[in-house]
Design brief:
By secondary structure, this protein is of the alpha/beta class. It folds into two domains: about 270 residues, no CATH class; about 180 residues, no CATH class. The protein contains 13 helices and 19 strands. An eight-stranded mixed β-sheet has the order 12-13-16-17-11-18-10-19. It has a six-stranded mixed β-sheet with strand order 2-3-1-4-5-6, with helices on both faces. A three-stranded antiparallel β-sheet has the order 7-9-8. Helix 4 links the parallel strand 4 and strand 5. Helix 7 runs antiparallel to helix 8. The longest helix has 18 residues. The chain is globular.
C-alpha cells in the first residue's frame, strides 16, 4: 500500500463454460477476446471486468490490468490451451509487481483435458503465487460448479443474481467492492458454502419466476446482519465432473455466527423443491402447429443444441421440421455449417441452389437436411451484440449466408454458431425477427430478455442434443452419485 492509502488491485478475467458432451474441444483460437496488460483495459464491453474496474477507479485506487479472456461456451479446453491461459495469467501477475489485492472474473464451469475443476486449479496457482495474505475476490456465473477448492483459495466469491444474465457489470462491481472493504477495514471476509446433490435444467433456472426466483428472494432476505452477499448456483448441468451439484454461498466475516446456517437452509429448501423444476417440452410439429394458432411472433427454443451451453449449433432438425410442417409461416432459423456457407459464397447472391445442411460437426443426434432456395445475402463482418447480455461484444460468426426457401423458412447459415439469444445477428444478416411468425433460437433461457418485447409466446422444443433438458439421457461417469434427477 502506498503512503496515500491507494491500493494496487489486479484485474483479470478468464471465462469459458465447458460442456462435457460437446462434439469439439475448445482451443486457444476460440477465445474471441484475449488481451493482456493495457489492451485489456481498453476493451469497452459491459462485463464483470468492466464493473470491477469501475469500482476500483471510483474508489481512488489503482486498477492494474492483467488479462481479459473470453470464449463462447464449448467443449472442455485442450490441455495446451489450459496451460497457455494459466501461464498468461500468472505471467501477468508477476509482471505487475506488488499487488494489494486481486479481482478475478471466472465462469466457474471451466474444464480441460485432465482437469475437471480448472477454475479451482487456477485459483490455487494464483494463491501459491500471491501468498496467503493478499485477498482475492472472484465473480462467477450463476451456472458455476462450486468446489471446496474454489472457496478455500478465494476470500470472496460472488455470483450473478440473474438468469438471463443481465447483472454481469453489477457482479464484478460487487466483488471488487467487497475486496476494497476488506483491504480498507482489515475485516477478513470468507465464503461459506453449502451443496446438494441435484441438477436443474437450464430452462427452469429463471430468476424472474418459478422456484429459483423464490430462492433468490429468500437469499436477498437473509443478506443482512453482516452477510454481504448470498449467491445461488443451480449449476451448468452438462458438466461431467467431480463435486457437481447445486450450491449456495454466503460472503461474511470469518467468524460470522449464522452465515453457514443460512447457506444450509437455502440449499435444503432447494432440495425440498427438486420436483418443481420440470420443463414443458414440445415436439417440433406440435410447436409449429401451436404457433399457427397465435397472432404474432412465437419463439421456438432448440435448447438441446445451444452454443451458449457448449453445443455446436449445427442441428438441422428445425430446418427439416419447418420445411415439412411450416408452409406459409415466415420463419427464421440458423445452422452452423462452414461447407454450406462456402457453397453459397461460391454460387453468389441471387443464385438458386440445393445443398445438404447441418450435422457436419456433431453427427450423433441428426443427419443433414436437403435445403433448396435462393441465396439472398452474403457477409463476413463480425456482429456487435446490442441486447441486455454482453452488450458491446463483437462476435465473429465467420462468413454467413441467408438462403430463402420461398416456402416460409429463411435459413441463416454461419461458419461459427450465431448468438441468437440476441436480435443483432438476425438484423446483421438483413433479417427482421419482428416480421416473422416463428424464430428458432438456440438458447435455453438467455434469449428471453431480448425477445420479450416482440414475442407473443416462447416454447421449448423436445429434441436430442449435447445441451438437452432431458438430463437423465446423458451418460454421466465422473459426477458424484446419487444425483437428482439422474437417480430418483
Amino acid at each position: 500500500m502506498t503512503a496515500t492509502g491507494v491500493r494496487r488491485i489486479g484485474l483479470a478475467m478468464l471465462v469459458q463454460e465447458s460442456n462435457s458432451w460437446s462434439a469439439r474441444q475448445t482451443e486457444l483460437g476460440d477465445f474471441q477476446t484475449l488481451r493482456t496488460g493495457a489492451a485489456a483495459r481498453e476493451l469497452d464491453v459491459a462485463d464483470e471486468y468492466h464493473g470491477a474496474a469501475g469500482v476500483v477507479r471510483a474508489a481512488g485506487h489503482e486498477g492494474v490490468p492483467l488479462l481479459r479472456a473470453w470464449a463462447m461456451s464449448g467443449g472442455p479446453l485442450t490441455a495446451d490451451a489450459a496451460a497457455t491461459l494459466e501461464r498468461m495469467l500468472l505471467d501477468a501477475i508477476r509482471a505487475a509487481g506488488r499487488l494489494d489485492g486481486l479481482y478475478l472474473g471466472l465462469h466457474g464451469a471451466l474444464a480441460a483435458d485432465g482437469i475437471g475443476d480448472v477454475d479451482g486449479h487456477l485459483l490455487a496457482a494464483v494463491r501459491d503465487l500471491l501468498g496467503p495474505e493478499i485477498p482475492v475476490a472472484v465473480s462467477l456465473d450463476l451456472h458455476a460448479n462450486l468446489t471446496r477448492r474454489m472457496v478455500r483459495q478465494a476470500d470472496i466469491v460472488v455470483g450473478y443474481h440473474t438468469y438471463p444474465h443481465i447483472d454481469q457489470v453489477r457482479t464484478g462491481a460487487a466483488a471488487a467492492r467487497l475486496l476494497i472493504e476488506q483491504l480498507t477495514t482489515g475485516v477478513r471476509l470468507r465464503t461459506y458454502l453449502a451443496k446438494r446433490p441435484m441438477l436443474v435444467p437450464a430452462e427452469a433456472q429463471s430468476t424472474g419466476d418459478g422456484p429459483i426466483a423464490d430462492l433468490r428472494r429468500l437469499a436477498d432476505a437473509v443478506t443482512s446482519g453482516g452477510i454481504r452477499d448470498v449467491s445461488i448456483f443451480p449449476v451448468q448441468p452438462w458438466l461431467d465432473v467431480g463435486e457437481l451439484g447445486f450450491a449456495v454461498t454466503a460472503v461474511a466475516p470469518a467468524d460470522h455466527p449464522t452465515a453457514q446456517h443460512r447457506c444450509d437452509d437455502l440449499a435444503e429448501t432447494a432440495w425440498d423443491r427438486r420436483h418443481d423444476f420440470d420443463v414443458e417440452l414440445y415436439e417440433p410439429r406440435a410447436a409449429i402447429e401451436r404457433a399457427r394458432t397465435l397472432d404474432g411472433l412465437v419463439v421456438l427454443s432448440e435448447s438441446a443444441d445451444s452454443p451458449t451451453a457448449g453445443a455446436t449449433g449445427d442441428s438441422p432438425a428445425m430446418v427439416d421440421a419447418l420445411l415439412r410442417h411450416g408452409a406459409g409461416l415466415r420463419s427464421l432459423v440458423t445452422v452452423a455449417d462452414p461447407a454450406a456457407v462456402a457453397a453459397c459464397h461460391d454460387a453468389g447472391p441471387g443464385t438458386r441452389l440445393s445443398l445438404d445442411v447441418g450435422a457436419g460437426i456433431d453427427r450423433r443426434f441428426h443427419r443433414p437436411v436437403r435445403l433448396t432456395g435462393e441465396v439472398r445475402r452474403l457477409g463476413a463482418e463480425p456482429v456487435e451484440l446490442d441486447g441486455p447480455f454482453m452488450k458491446g461484444t463483437r462476435y465473429d460468426m465467420g462468413r454467413f449466408a441467408v438462403v430463402d426457401t420461398g416456402l416460409g423458412p429463411a435459413v441463416l447459415l454461419t461458419e461459427q454458431p450465431a448468438p441468437t439469444f440476441d436480435l443483432a445477428p438476425w438484423r446483421h444478416a438483413g433479417l427482421d425477427p419482428r416480421e416473422a411468425d416463428i424464430v428458432v433460437v438456440r438458447s435455453a433461457h438467455m434469449y428471453t430478455q431480448a425477445y420479450a418485447p416482440i414475442a407473443r409466446a416462447a416454447l421449448t422444443l423436445d429434441l436430442p442434443g449435447a445441451s438437452t433438458p432431458r438430463l437423465d439421457t446423458l451418460a454421466f461417469t465422473n459426477a458424484p452419485r446419487p444425483l437428482y434427477p439422474l437417480d430418483s
